[in-house]
Write a structure and sequence with these properties.
- The protein has 265 residues and is α+β, with helices and mostly antiparallel strands.
- The protein has one domain.
- 24% of the residues lie in helices and 23% in strands.
- The strands form three sheets. Strands 5-2-1-7-8 form a five-stranded antiparallel beta sheet, covered by helices on one side. A four-stranded antiparallel beta sheet has the order 6-9-10-11, covered by helices on one side. It has a two-stranded antiparallel sheet with strand order 3-4.
């Protein structure tokens, strides 16, 4: 009879097995983490683009948007002011999460004297503003809201490192006479609406003070993911020059290197 020899695994074989298994496990975990990060990042990019598209929708359709100071019979709604980089939030506290704010622009009901083709001049003619004074206090002329980019992403400029958070404002408004929607941008300086509201001793029109500095231009935002170690994957959210509706908000593919592609690489 032939005896069958029984032998177990050697320590070297056990070590190799555990080592290979460990490497496979680490690889799977890293892959899952990378996939989750990419999914979250794409969610923050699309969320910001959807926020901008919503602003256009609210400008085009003012149903349900109520103006202060007597309602729509005395005041007309002309669009939205979107601010980036304000120091304070709607409660007057530090804007620690870099929220973006949108305000309804309200002015006097249009009259026959508003015939200017220049939208900014026409807005001056109806005394458009985002803040009104009710007695001894300031109130927002219409709806004021804040938006924080998802997953702690940052909205930045297309400048090379060190990356700079975008500071400025968007003016998405309808002409008081024609109703045509126009998009203007203020780049590099912030309109501190919340600061003016908190300081009750200041009677000002924060929109009108800088109205002449807004220009019609393409706007490029770069969305930087929260773990800045991955800043090389920044994606571009763009508002086309002369945008009149939500279709003017574009999100180029991350690997699009064409002239009109991702400018945040």
């Amino acid at each position: 009879m032939v005896k069958k020899l029984r032998r177990g695994f050697t320590l070297v074989e056990v070590g190799l097995f555990l080592g290979v298994t460990g490497m496979l496990f680490v690889g799977i975990v890293m892959g899952v983490q990378g996939s989750m990060f990419q999914q979250r990042y794409n969610d923050s990019v699309q969320g910001f683009a959807d926020f901008l598209r919503t602003i256009y929708a609210q400008t085009s359709n003012v149903e349900g948007d109520k103006a202060a100071g007597g309602g729509r019979t005395e005041k007309a709604i002309y669009g939205k002011l979107v601010t980036f980089g304000e120091k304070l939030n709607l409660e007057g506290k530090t804007n620690s999460d870099n929220s973006i704010f949108s305000y309804t622009i309200v002015g006097n009901v249009k009259n026959e004297n508003i015939d200017s083709n220049n939208v900014l001049e026409a807005l001056k003619g109806v005394d458009a503003n985002v803040i009104v004074k009710n007695g001894s206090r300031f109130d927002y002329a219409g709806i004021a809201s804040q938006y924080a980019p998802r997953w702690s992403a940052k909205i930045q400029t297309i400048k090379a490192p060190p990356y700079v958070d975008f500071k400025g404002a968007l003016l998405i408004v309808r002409h008081p006479s024609s109703g045509t929607v126009f998009t203007y941008v203020l780049d590099g300086e912030t309109i501190e609406v919340n600061e003016r509201k908190k300081n009750m001793t200041v009677l000002s029109n924060p929109l009108r003070e800088k109205l002449d500095r807004f220009i019609i231009s393409e706007v490029n935002f770069c969305v930087n993911p929260e773990p800045e170690k991955a800043s090389s994957v920044r994606r571009n959210v763009r508002i086309a020059e002369g945008a009149r509706n939500a279709s003017g908000v574009e999100v180029p593919a991350q690997d699009d290197r064409s002239a009109g592609g991702n400018k945040c690489r």
